[in-house]
Every structure is written in C-alpha cells, then in structure tokens.
Amino acid sequence: MQEVILWSTLLLTLLLLVGLFFFLRASVKDRTEQIELEFNLQPSELASNLCTYLEKRAYQLIEKDDRLVFTGVVAPSRFLAVFLTLLAFLGLVCLSLILGTLLPQGGLVLGLLPLASPLAGFFYWTKARRSERVVARIQDTAAGCRLLIEAHRDEILTLRQKLETSTVK
Fold it and tell me: How many domains does the chain have?
C-alpha cells in the first residue's frame, strides 16, 4: 500500500513539473496583437503623441512612411526570474524526495537535483530579453482618426490607458 502511494505521488509530482515546464515556456512567448483604436484628434497630432509616448518608453522610430515602425528592447523581470527559479527549486526538491524514497540507492545524485533550478531563471532571463516592434498606421476618418497598431499586448494596454481611447473592434 505504501508503495502505491509513493508511485502515485511521483506521478502527480511529474505532472506538476510538466506544468512548470509549460509555464516557463509561456513566460517567454511572443504575445503580439493587432487592434484598432479611435481618436478625436487630427492624424498629425496623434502621430506626434504616439511618437512622444513610445520614445519615452525607450522605443526608437526606424521607419516613417505610410506607417510608423518603432523598435525597442524588452528587459526581463527580475521578480519573474527569481519566482521561476523558486518554483523550479521546490518542484525539484519534491521530485528528489520522492525518488530518494523510492530509490534509496540514488543517494547524493538525487539530493543534488534541486541545484539545477537556477537553469529555469537563466532560461527565462536569456529568452525574455528580446527586441519588440510596434507598427502603427494612422487613417483619417470623419470623426477624427483611426490607429491600427500591432504590438505586444501589454504595450497596447498601456498605450490605450495613456492616450484614453475607445476600441473600435
């Protein structure tokens, strides 16, 4: 009976580690979205406001034709790197405890398993630092202008809050 409990606990721990793996992968996933926003401004005024806002957020204008293209580097979050390392550490401690109980001859090797947890933080830190693009097109409308923007979803959320707009979609 005791062995059945240990094997089922091992299975649940492995499932939790699989979830941790996918959580780690999702933390560096690209989340680019496209959205339309309506403004009661002139197109030139909106373009100026948009350029000022994005330049304050460390983006640089690299193209200015029928569309505005900005690039910037997204810095990784220290909190998230530490959090992911802590989660990996706890998961690996649980795994090493269960394996140590099931396979007592594993000894020191299983006890060193949690020392691999900083690899999770390292993975996040290296993959999360990436170049982001913001592509904006401004169209003149009867009521003002429409901004078609393609950017990271968090950037779109802060842009919407900052410029106080209403969504057309």
Answer: 2
